[in-house]
Amino acid sequence: MNSAWVRRLNAVRLMQALRRRPGSSQRELAALTGLDKATVSAVTAQLVQAGLVERSAAATGAPRLGRPAVALRIPQSAGMVFGIRLEPDRVALVAADLGGMVLARDAEPGAAGPEAMMQALRRGAERLEARLAPLPLRAVGIGVPALIDRAGRLIFAPNLGWRDVPLAAHVAAIFAAPVAIENDSKAAAIAERAFGSCAGVDDFIYVSGHSGVGGAIFAGGALYRGGDGLAGEIGHVKVMQGGRACACGGRGCLEAYASEPALVATLAARGRAAAGLGEAAALAQAGDAVVLELLAETGRLAGRALAPLVNALNPSRLVFGGSLAAVTPWMLPALRAELAEAALEELAGALLIAASPLGTDAVPMGGVALALQRLDAELLEAPARIARRAGP
Ligand SMILES: [Zn+2]
Hints:
Layout: H1 3-20, H2 26-33, H3 37-49, E1 54-56, E2 71-73, E3 80-86, E4 90-97, E5 102-109, H4 114-131, E6 137-144, E7 147-148, E8 154-157, E9 162-165, H5 167-172, E10 179-183, H6 184-195, E11 204-209, E12 213-219, E13 222-223, H7 255-258, H8 260-269, H9 277-285, H10 289-313, E14 317-322, H11 328-342, H12 345-348, E15 352-355, H13 362-381, H14 383-389
Parallel strand pairs: 3-6, 6-10, 11-14, 14-15
Antiparallel strand pairs: 1-2, 3-4, 4-5, 7-8, 8-9, 11-12, 12-13
The structure holds zinc ion.
């Protein structure tokens, strides 16, 4: 292995450790990364010189005998990343520092066509950059409700009505920084592992329900992307033979029953008016039998879609996110019953099932996590470029 590359890899490990534990001393960083103290000291000196790490006198821990430990952190002056969610009705933006701490949020109304959507994105991004000037923008991560291939090409976005859009090229024309584009549910799952309930969980399945139903699979500590980058389309697992028409062109998909618009429409047809799943959750909380029955049906259908995945992948957790998280507690008994029937007891019995704590921030925070990954990759490939851009 090339020694310059190893040095860069060590720099990335140190940055990642400082994101997990800001204010660590060099000794603590050595313990966190498994690197020896001399290496930590040398790499820290390089990162300090590049403006990516700063030393401050007071360590967070108790004072030790002799010289007080110096606390290290990623300074705000090192720059910022943007995490972005594109949706038909809204462009949501989150700015975070290179430690992953949120600095500011903004939003723009969405738009129908790709060109108008890119203009909305540009307006939101320019406003946020101006607000946080002179912090340099280092990287951008974007979550989109679409099939996105490994090259960042949008293949199909049923809820946006887009097909075959060179999204990476469009977005590259807006930002001077590198951009990572990902399916919104995959971005949300990445956020769940970086900032949510799945820190340290290597194997989990994430199901998000909002305008559609999406999914993502973490296997062995990595997002499973599949051959073309399209894995995780749990919303289009068929749960009802010859059932309702779905936006994908198929019939009987989970999404046709469990997306927010589908659930709201079913409730309306059964005489219950709810503007969204937040209101449905309030009705369920109040014991409304019609709502409770529909959420039990939804739990059974979700269990039908997920049981084969539980058998095939042996996840240790199932996480429900998006607006579906609001009603997950009332889906659980039927979901568990369906899993008990359709999956092996040894795999389904120990499974933890939970609602995501990230709320509407999940996708933009996934964008932040993607942007930080992109930045780490760049640090590994081109440290000189990062160092030159360090500091405002
Ligand atoms: Zn479908």
